[in-house]
Amino acid sequence: MANLNINFAGIKSPNPFWLASGPPTNSGYQIMKAFDQGWGGAVWKTLGVPVVNVSSRYGAINHRGNKMVGLNNIELITDRRLSDNLREMEEVKKHFPDHAVIASLMVQSKTEWHQIVKDVQNAGADGIELNFGCPHGMCERGMGSAVGQEPEVLELLTGWVMDVAKVPVIVKLTPNISDITVPAQAARRAGADAISLINTIQSLIGIDIDKFIAYPVVENHSTNGGYCGPAVKPIALNMVKNCAQNPYVQLPISGIGGIENWRDAVEFILLGSTSVQICTAVMHYGFGIIRELTAGLEQYMDSHGFATIDQFVGKALPNIKDWADLNLKYSVKASIDEDKCIGCQLCYTACEDGAHQAIDLNDDKSIRIPKINEENCVGCNLCSLICPVENCITMVRKDDGKQHITWKQRTEADNIPLIFDDELAGGLSHAVRKPIDALKK
Ligand SMILES: Cc1cc2nc3c(=O)[nH]c(=O)nc-3n(C[C@H](O)[C@H](O)[C@H](O)COP(=O)(O)O)c2cc1C
Ligand code: SF4
Ligand code: SF4
Fold this sequence. Notes:
Layout: E1 6-8, E2 11-13, E3 17-19, H1 28-37, E4 41-43, E5 58-63, E6 66-73, H2 82-95, E7 100-105, H3 110-122, E8 127-131, H4 145-148, H5 151-164, E9 169-172, H6 181-189, E10 194-197, E11 201-203, E12 207-208, E13 213-214, E14 225-228, H7 233-245, E15 253-256, H8 262-270, E16 273-278, H9 280-285, H10 289-304, E17 332-336, H11 346-354, E18 359-360, E19 371-372, H12 382-386, E20 393-397, H13 407-412
Parallel strand pairs: 3-4, 3-16, 4-7, 7-8, 8-9, 9-10, 10-15, 15-16
Antiparallel strand pairs: 1-2, 5-6, 6-14, 11-14, 12-13, 17-20, 18-19
Helix pairs in contact: 1-2, 3-5, 5-6, 8-10
């Protein structure tokens, strides 16, 4: 039976699922309720000098009937008194000594940092997370992502915290930067014990096109906010991968961004996360999702023979390479399972207008099943992605697996296109229709 316990940079937790700092961790009441239902840890709503919040403060993207695939917020850090938060933190720790309670912090001066670190340690926090990621409101006051975007400042402030920290310190990074490994390395240089990523992505969720006001509306105005939820998961995964693969980072990672179910969590773990944090999915579905998260993860681990989380942290990393290291001789072509095809012809339209004109319709219009033209097919995947029938279009390997050549090897052998109409260019090896043929249709 799988053991879900983790030791994250010295912070012990009965499972890798932590509530991310946000509305679900705003109070001891919520955190106790979540722990009672099975959550392993919680990162408290960021503590600092309490702020005033506006209403309204959230906006969302709905996509084809799915509500809130992306969430935007203009909320700031806690608006509750520090003394209340500390008292409640102590109470939570008393009831749940084996769960991970992490205090998220954001203050300004060195004196303030020293004081608040001591305060949360006295309240029993198992770890500290430095919020250098919030991309709205607080950054305009020189905090949050304003720190995360300046590696030298991040290093200085993390150093202040390390001066007095007696519990593990996690630096939470902002994705609003071109290379997230730069602040990650700064965190390492400052002596941080771990990193967490991502915080929200700076965004404007949309506009009321009749009133000419952006969302979320505050009287007659709005402002930019932070984007999260399922829509940001691919960005978060890439950033986690970048940090995990960087030889100068080498810190435990708490993965965050769009996690909704156990599969999402496994993906983050396979890319190097030891713990995972969740905010939007809890705001959407409540603490109860923990039952599916833990049961699914256990079943996955059992089916793969993993006894502990450590056994598969980063297991997908060796298979993610630079583009220049991919085999140029590997070749797949689309194949339609005629028994499954419902004749919707969506694949034809997609390939005809959006890809490589490699799907033909039958001249007899009563026959709806399209045919793949292998000469034109470049194996891009588009048709298989849009086909509404599961496994109806599959990509079938066509090379014999004996040849292996990468762009890097070609570059080293001086075997690359150097002029615009070079015969070595890949585009010349697949058929392309003449422009005039477009008008004959
Ligand atoms: C309404 C809201 C408030 C948030 N407040 C905080 C905060 O106070 N401190 C913090 O570090 N992150 C905060 N976050 C960011 C989350 O902790 C998390 O990094 C982000 O939402 C991505 O995870 P998700 O896709 O699971 O929501 C907030 C997110 C939301 C949606
Ligand atoms: S999209 Fe799929 S189901 Fe529709 S015609 Fe193409 S192969 Fe058939
Ligand atoms: S894989 Fe790409 S090129 Fe080939 S048939 Fe499908 S859409 Fe067209």
